[in-house]
Design brief:
The protein is an alpha+beta fold. It has three helices and nine strands.
């Protein structure tokens, strides 16, 4: 029987790949990206001042804490007073704004509504905007009949 151990051994990587750094020099251990937005504004990164890892928010301590070295960064309290909004008043205000917005959209020119075929949401296109992505499911959307002479 033939020796098949040759096929089980891992293939060695080329020599040029072995000495490249795992992390880029700008990212590892740098605090230059403090507060930098990532993923289109859905979050911010705050690197640890001691080890460079991403700090995580600790709910119990109301501070940023490093999960690796334990460094704690206290958060300064806001100067603004926190006030509670009346739930029913906010709902009424939002309903009025929505009704006004619908009336304005119906009378506005150059406004088109496209239905997302993936999730069923209605997305409003204003002006010359011809394509976008659904804000709910991120599917690509495109207006139909963009090049009709009557609509331009």
């Amino acid at each position: 029987m033939a020796d098949l151990s040759f096929f089980r051994s891992p293939i060695p990587r080329p020599m040029t790949d072995r000495f490249e750094p795992v992390f880029s020099p700008e990212v590892s251990g740098s605090t230059n990206s403090v507060g930098e937005t990532i993923d289109d504004g859905r979050g911010r990164i705050f690197p640890c001042e001691q080890c460079g890892a991403d700090l995580e928010f600790s709910i119990g301590q109301q501070s940023l804490q490093c999960p690796f070295c334990g460094c704690v960064k206290e958060l300064a309290p806001s100067a603004e007073e926190i006030r509670e909004n009346d739930y029913h008043a906010v709902l009424e205000r939002l309903q009025k704004q929505r009704e006004q917005g619908v009336d304005e959209l119906l009378t506005a020119k150059g406004v088109n509504e496209v239905r997302c075929e993936s999730c069923g949401a209605n997305v409003v296109f204003q002006g010359n905007l011809t394509s976008s992505s659904c804000p709910y499911c991120a599917s690509p959307l495109q207006r139909d009949k963009v090049h009709d002479a009557s609509s331009q």
